[in-house]
Amino acid sequence: MEKDKRKYSALKEKAGIEPPEIFSPSAVKNIQKFRKVQPSSEELVNGILSGNITALSRAITLIESTNPNHLTKANEVINACLPHANKSARIGITGVPGVGKSTFIEAFGKHLTGLGKKVAVLAVDPSSTISHGSILGDKTRMEELVKDKNAFIRPSASGETLGGVARKTRESISLCEACGFDTIIIETVGVGQSETAVHSMVDFFLLLKIAGAGDELQGIKRGIMEMADAIVINKADGDNIRKAKLAKSEFNRALHLFPAKKSGWTPTTATCSAINQNGISEVWETIEKFLELTKGNDYFYKKRSEQNEYWLMETINEQIKLHFYNHPDIQELLDSTKKAVQNDEISPFAAAQLLLNKYFK
Which tens digit of pLDDT belongs to each residue from 252-311? Predict the structure, then answer.
């Protein structure tokens, strides 16, 4: 009797229907097959020239790759796109963290697309020196601009590059121009040290500042101020309007201490509120005046020629460095040489000479 009760107990589990697979095996095979298929350099170039954003993104990923096997293909894409490049206004934007670069660029970019411009934003995100990772959150910050069909936002990690410019930003500019973007905006990390790299790849250099942060005294110093073609005090809204106007006057006086620019352009100062869209159109008007002046006196074209020469030398230095560390003899000797230096068995300078002698043999 007890046996029968157990047999017909309501707690007894009955056989049911087997749950379906949580994924489709055929779909997985198709995805894996698609991932293995890499577009040829010709397909990437054709896609870029036709304005395909996906092809542009994949090409930028290719040229950012540190894999030596990707170098030949990347060069083929760049060389094919070069005849279709150099038809844009290149604008560099920098400023200390917290100055509102992303908010300003979104407001500025929306203003330009409203004028019928095609805008590409190459945003450089700082990389951690510990984990070597980057947040790459610029698309999240520019949530309105990223949805604009006439805008393209590409965040890249700064890596070990001093000054906050990604290693392949210069080549990315050419690809964006070939894709039909007539205004290229480069946002730097804004480390406040070496912004020479971004200055050497743009036509107009814009420095964003904020009032009430002690920046007024820093404005008197040379360096970043000398490179700026315009200084814009952002966040001029609410209770900060009076401080922003005062900062504008102080920066304007500081600019008069510097020698005249070779371009014949006199740097300007202005205030704006990116969050309230105030002063944005005036910034673009300033850039247009600059471009008109520098194209009229041929400084624009001379500067671009000098920039091409600069990046020739930079690329040679970069390729030599890459080839050095990928050389089999160096890879075999490097770890033991590092340990010897750490143990004070050999000086860093003698160790470096030892490695270089091995490489040049």
Answer: 888 877 888 889 999 999 999 999 989 999 999 999 999 999 999 999 999 999 988 888
| Inter-residue contact 117 to 211 (CB < 8 Å) | no
Tokens read off for 214? 């002690």
From residue 50, give the alpha-carbon distance in Å to each of 37, 46, 174.
21, 6, 15
- DSSP character at residue 85: -
Nearest one of 271, 111, 83, 293 to 204, comparing CA atoms = 293
| C-alpha distance from residue 184 to each of 23, 86, 237, 249 (Å) | 42, 11, 27, 30
Beta bridge partners of 152: 120
pTM, whole model, 2 decimals? 0.80
b/e map of 323-334 (b: 16 or more CB within 10 Å)? Answer: eeeeeeebeebb
What ranges in 132-207 are assigned the alpha helix state H? 138-141, 169-178, 196-199
